[in-house]
Amino acid sequence: xxxxxxxxxxxxxxxxxxxxxxxxxxxxxxxxxxxxxxxxxxxxxxxxxxxxxxxxxxxxxxxxxxxxxxxxxxxxxxxxxxxxxxxxxxxxxxxxxxxxxxxxxxxxxxxxxxxxxxxxxxxxxxxxxxxxxxxxxxxxxxxxxxxxxxxxxxxxxxxxxxxxxxxxxxxxxxxxxxxxxxxxxxxxxxxxxxxxxxxxxxxxxxxxxxxxxxxxxxxxxxxxxxxxxxxxxxxxxxxxxxxxxxxxx
Length: 249
Known about the structure:
With about 250 residues, the chain is of the alpha+beta class.
């Protein structure tokens, strides 16, 4: 399983991904699911992947090949984030069709998040579906997720706004990842985190291994604050009920 997340605020973008790949209880491997493409001062793209590992690797290999061979269309030639998402969708669909059987098997499906900025365009993030189409964030939904998304969603809904600063958004992403790892053992470290400040065309990258001291401290602090908040919740006030109002028979 996988969990990847991208956050879009007025200040810039945050990307977070785990690195665990699970094909059964006895086949747990580690692969990065975060890839970077770009030219300093001109454009930056971050690509997050989820789904069939062979397909995601084939898609990323094609992206890298098109850049290396200076193809007419690549992440170094697209003129906008929308064009980048369209291009990624076409490559993804082509790789899935290449390996699918005659019955249209969906075992090779992959999903991606691509985000970043092209000079002259604003920073954006898009989710690219297996069919090749894509969506983006909105003023009410500041994040996109792929993979095991449900466990890490509540903290994002409660904290993130358009004006959230990048440091807070990065913390929110890590707490979201921690909640997911706690509830689903197929999601796990190393955890990769990228911050992209609007119009900077450069990134800050960090990687947290399983024994990382900061991750342990973050988990302990979050667990303690949750317990503290829970015990301070207002008590339930039970309404008196007469015997006639009872549902008992």
